[in-house]
Amino acid sequence: VQRDLDVAVTEFTELKQQLERDTLVLSILKKLQEFDTAIKEYNTALLEKKYVAAAQQLEKARRSLKTLESRKGFELKILKALGTELTVQTQNILYHLGEEWQKLVVWRLPPSKASSSLESVLASELHLCTVPSEEGLAGPPVASVLQAFAVLGELHSKLKTFGQLLLKHILKPLISYSSLRPLVEEQSDVVILRFKSEEPNLDNTSPVEVFEKMKQILEFLHKYLLNVPLECVDDKKECKVILSELLGDIIWEELSDCLIQNCLVNSIPTNSSKLEQYVEVIKSTEEFETALKNMQFLKGDTTNLLKYARNVNSHFANKKCQDVIVAARKLMTSEIHNTVKISPDSSVALPRLPDPRAGDHLKMEKTSKLLHNEMVILENESKLSQHTFSLPACRISSSVEELMDLAYQTLLEATASTDQCCIQLFYSVRNIFQLFYDVVPTYHKENLQKLPQLAAIHHNNCMYIAHHLLTLGHQFRYRLTSILCDGTATFVDMVPGFRRLGMECFLAQMRVQKGEILERLSSARNFSNMDDEENYCAANKAIRQVLHQLKRLGKVWQDVLPVNVYCKAMGTLLNTALTEIVTRITALEDISAEDADRLYSLCRTMVEEGPQVFTPLPEEDKNKKYQEEVPVYVQKWMTFKELMIILQANLQEIVDQWADGKGPLAAEFSPVEVKSLIRALFQNTERRAAALAKIK
To answer: Is the whole model's pTM more than 0.85, yes or no?
Structure first.
């Protein structure tokens, strides 16, 4: 019995294994049959142009093949052939679907070379077929093709290609060209979208108009192409596909960036008084997004487009600041030599600010008045001159006057702006002056070094700016935002820098001119041996060259520098020449009578023509006053005149001029210098020895 039981168990095990093998083979054969049936039905449906059914059968065949490939231990050679067949048939249906798509959605485009011009945009058309679907699906005729693409998983790539064409040939040109208007033409079997051109608007396209036209295009697409309920199978679950949402995900980011950069950016106001009108643009943006959400192009979240429009105050401030800096830099790089005359009596265009107690409702006023007209009259009898704190008359670059006007107008704009905008505009004005400090000396460096007149104008420009910076912050302090009213609204800290900038440039030019004077005098052969005609001619030529240089400088600085600066500058340069001549002559060891006469003649030329270089004003008769005041500006003037007296005097006259160290000669020369001159001028006699003994 035990033996029979073992045999029965063995037979049962074998039969069970056989049954499992047969069941597996049967299931594989069943799947192969399903694959075969699906391919046959696919071919039939494809011939009948029932693309959705064909795609579904192809997907059924794909699932059957996937099941067969997942069976381990049954690596059938036929599976590779089936996989190849499936790939071939997939490409076949995609080809047919592509052909149908091109018939249903037709782009009529100009040659690619001319794709960016207005003419090419006007030649672009989009044709959508309106013949009903043979498969009887709801929606436009393209529905069956789109559903088939969805079943095959190719819908996204197809819509991506369509979206790129839509952006390039329809949506972006609509934003770029304000004259374009969309035109929809309905025919019996097709609807056509094209553009017509109207009279272009010279101003930038209004966002309201752009949104309206954009909405018209998307409504057209929604009605004739995208309003199709589609289904697809994803991980064995059926899911709804919303075409509008899918296309929106593809194109919205690029479209919204284009709308911002080419439409909203240009619509940002340049004046704070126009900010209130921008509410219309924000409202239009909201309506545009709402319409897109209703058509399911957008999801529920607020997009970057609306955020940008609502953040108009920040964008206005950024744009205004950028425009101000660009305008300022343009003025700084313009020519310095175009000048205007300013004087204490000239009208300085300052904005008239409202009374600080007048409330927060500010109105911009273009009225400008003289600063001194606003001054409070002191009751005390001793009154200051109305010009006490005025800038002296001089010439400045017209560009600098415009720059200062730009600063005042920007600060006036800040008084009527929001707190954040006010702060940005205030610091933009500070940046203007910092930019001037950095840009002008570098950009005009070569001209400022070579041309004395430009150096003088730049000096005036810097002093003019510094003069205004002293009170600029104070004038606006109580009109700006409360954040800036604690003392931060000031420009006084920049004043020393600008004064130093102007002085350093002018002093550098003065050093250049001093160097040229000394170089010319170096050719005078130390003023020695004047009885030699050649030496005398060389010295005379040097004197003439120096005088010519000073006269030329006097002309180029005339009516440019303030009178006091002009006189100090010319006096310093003339003093340089006189000091050098005095030093050279007092260093001579031997001066003959003829030498003395010729040296006197050269000195007399300097004394007679030197004052004539002082011509600060164009009116000749007004310059006499300054020519008579030469000793005030030329430190060595009296020293030079005393030297001339010594050259023509006898020993007794020199002793009298010394007057025991109390005379005019003693005020200008030291005993050593006088003794040296006496030894050079007179022979060694008892009278000379007696005279020398008195010089102490």
So the answer is: no
